[in-house]
Amino acid sequence: MAKELSKTLWKTALPLVFGAAVAIWLIRKDIDMATLRSIPLDGHTLICIGLALLAVVGRDFGLAWRFHTIAAGDLTWKRAFRTDIMCAFTSAITPSVVGGSALAIFYLNREGISIGRATALTLTTLFLDELFFVVFCPIMVLIVPLSDLFAAGASVSEGVSAFLGGVEIVFWLVYAGIVVWTAVLYIAILARPDATSHMLEKMSGWRILRRFSGKILNMAHNMVATSQWVKGRSARWWLNVFGSTVLSWFSRYFVVSFLFLAFVPSASQLLVFARQFVVWVVLMVSPTPGGSGISEWLFATYYGDLIGNVGMAAVLALVWRLLSYYIYIIGGCTLLPGYFGENKKPTI
């Protein structure tokens, strides 16, 4: 257990180094004393920062509510919050392209949920998160003109213009992948679990996939088990779990909205909110742990046209990452020893 804890702490150091390097680069490049003096420190600013912190709480309440609901009473609110913080911590120390969802099974198991049921819960939460983007991204695109959403009409340098064009391409490619993956999860979990399981079992026999046959067969079993578990759930249950998912993601976006209200109140709040969909979709394919480094740079550049001042854009990027990233590194490191303690026995 000590070896596992040590290995995890080493993994934690990597994203911190990435993030710190970019933070130093932004501070040296864009933030000067004039920028710091221009930051308003009045009652309005403090209230908006307080609202941003409240949005952070809303994000974690939404996910804890979802864990508590899908566990059907087997996960107390305290343990649900603990699981949420640890999942956020794992996402912060693993590349976004890898994701931290797999370890949710481990955390749920350490909280007393059996491996099979923990897998079913994790697949269900994954489906709900993907469904959120499938539903709300088109709504945002319909409400906000594409030229505003991707800053196509902004007066920027040639290099920034090319970067924003790349962001748009990545967004649509990743969104298409999300739609396909959500459809696969829907078919596998809700529509045709038996047919999906049969197909996976046949695929496990292919020569090219033989080395992965064990994992493929396990996936097939988990899909069927998850389907059996979620089928028959009431409309109220689905409303609760999807509502908690929406609350969590919207709260995550409102953190940025309140920061703009604090530091750049003249910016369009609708546009600030809508662009968060683009930011989080693009960060899903970040190769760095927790999107460290890339997140700060993406935020400062993508929102630059709304802020106007590169120094203020860097300040906002750093405060945003403090509330959406570093806070979970600290929380996870605090809870981590308990998950590798000898007194916690996994449930089969």
How would you characterize this protein structure?
- This protein is mostly helical and 348 residues long.
- Helices cover 78% and strands 0% of the residues.
- The chain contains 15 helices and no strands.
- Helix 3 packs antiparallel against helix 11, helix 6 packs across helix 12 and helix 9 runs antiparallel to helix 10.
- The longest helix has 34 residues.
- It is globular and about 65 Å long.
- The model has no long low-confidence stretch (mean pLDDT 83).
The low-pLDDT segments are: none
**Alpha carbon gyration radius:** 21 Å
The shape, in one word, is: globular
Helical content (DSSP H or I, runs of 4+): over 70%
- Cα separation of the termini: 18 Å
Q: What do the pLDDT scores average to? A: 83
Strand coverage percent: under 5%
Order of helices and strands: HHHHHHHHHHHHHHH
Write the layout of secondary structure elements.
Blueprint lengths: L1 H29 L2 H5 L5 H28 L6 H17 L8 H9 L4 H29 L2 H4 L8 H34 L1 H11 L9 H18 L4 H29 L5 H15 L10 H9 L1 H4 L2 H30 L9
Tags for this entry?
78% helix, single chain, globular, 348 residues, mainly alpha
